[in-house]
Amino acid sequence: MYYSTTDVYQSKRKLVNFSKSLVPKENKVERKFVADIILKEPIKVVNTVERLGQNLEKDLSSQIDENYTRQVVKI
Hints:
Elements: H1 4-22, H2 28-39, H3 45-57, H4 63-74
Helix pairs in contact: 1-2
């Protein structure tokens, strides 16, 4: 039997864990924002524009680039 929901859940969990490894723990809002960008979750356009405006108004953590580079080099 094929369990597609289990496969989807596992894939989604891996992506969420990857996004958590990129953002420092103290930046909870930034962490959620990065996870949503990676997962491309369907949300209302108005909400997307507001969140993008709020989150991109300020610079994202410089650690994201460093952590991403570290993760990619591992692979």
